[in-house]
Amino acid sequence: MHLRIGTRGSALALRQAEWVRSQLLTVHQRLTVELVTIKTQGDRILDVPLADVGGKGLFVKEIEEALLDRLVDLAVHSMKDMTAEIPAGLHVAAMPPREDPRDVLITGRETGFADLPSGARVGTSSLRRAAQLYHLRSDLRIDMLRGNIDTRLRKLATHGFDAVVLAAAGMKRMGLSHRITEYFEPERMLPAVGQGALGIETRVDDQATNSLVGGLGHGPTMVAVRAERSFLRRLQGGCQVPIGGLATVEGERLTLIGMVADLQGKRMIRRSLEGEAPQAEEIGERLAEAIVAAGGAEILADMYGAANPARDT
């Protein structure tokens, strides 16, 4: 059997897809697997903040269309790039064990976050990161920084940034852990929903491919990300609103922490909820409702510039 994996062409995306390919070939030795690179809108538009051009879905839409058109058989995504609603006919068939979900600070020297000078220029393309950075230190200057990992690290040295904030997972998968200056624990900065997790997306009706990739799934990761995505879906959130969420699973217990903030990090609603792991999606919805009731409704209304959609559903 021959499988075609749809992937973005960035070094990190190719490394992630190649990892999935190697895992499949290890288990299914008569299989042949090729990588099909697909350029997404997010890869083409690099000089505009993601929030201004549509946010979530920019890195997956064209790949999902190729799946639906049967040009590829499966796709490998970073779960943080996926929209809360998956197109009809597709599903996430498996999520391998999650990599480190935390955000990290890279400075190019040994200066930690607390030691950055007042007015230090920090690069990120994420409203979620920017809001939490401002909440921790309102004296910082946060500037847009887009591009792949290599591009951002290069701009740290050449474009006058004092620091950049990236995902630990990407740095580790690219063998760049040695460049990390400091990890942001979730108590200080919540990651994006699904950060650090890979999603293997397939067609629902493709029983052969679903059977092949199912063995790559990691139960606790899938449960945790389901809770986070339920939280995001209930808030109808995307890249246009600073929303963070992280679930952890220990045995049959799940703990979910969620956050909604304004763009300057002045108003931030942060809550946590614990429950039974099989109730992951219900926990996500309940936590979202608790945050909306605690003041998140007003923040979301201001962000969307209209009546809060999460309040009326």
Low-pLDDT regions: 306-313
Q: Output the CATH topology of the largest domain.
A: D-Maltodextrin-Binding Protein, domain 2
Strand sequence of the main sheet, in spatial order?
Answer: 2-1-3-10-4
**Strand-and-helix sequence, N→C?**
EHEHHEEEEHEHEHEEHHEEEH
What is the approximate shape? globular
**Helical content, roughly?**
25-40%
Number of strands: 13
Largest pleated sheet: 5 strands, mixed
CATH uppermost class of the largest domain? Alpha Beta
- In whole angstroms, how far apart are the ends? 45 Å
Rg from Cα: 19 Å
Q: Give the count of helical stretches.
A: 9
Supply the number of structural domains.
Answer: 3
Average of pLDDT? 91
Q: In what range is the share of β-strand residues?
A: 15-25%
CATH superfamily of the largest domain: Periplasmic binding protein-like II
CATH architecture of the largest domain: 3-Layer(aba) Sandwich
Structural class: alpha/beta
List the helices and strands and how they pair.
Elements: E1 2-7, H1 11-27, E2 32-37, H2 41-44, H3 61-68, E3 74-78, E4 90-94, E5 103-106, E6 121-123, H4 127-136, E7 141-143, H5 149-158, E8 163-167, H6 168-173, E9 182-184, E10 198-203, H7 207-213, H8 219-235, E11 243-250, E12 253-261, E13 268-276, H9 280-304
Parallel strand pairs: 1-2, 1-3, 6-7, 6-8
Antiparallel strand pairs: 3-10, 4-10, 5-8, 5-9, 11-12, 12-13
Helix pairs in contact: 8-9
How would you summarize this macromolecular structure in one to three sentences?
The protein has 313 residues and is an alpha/beta fold.
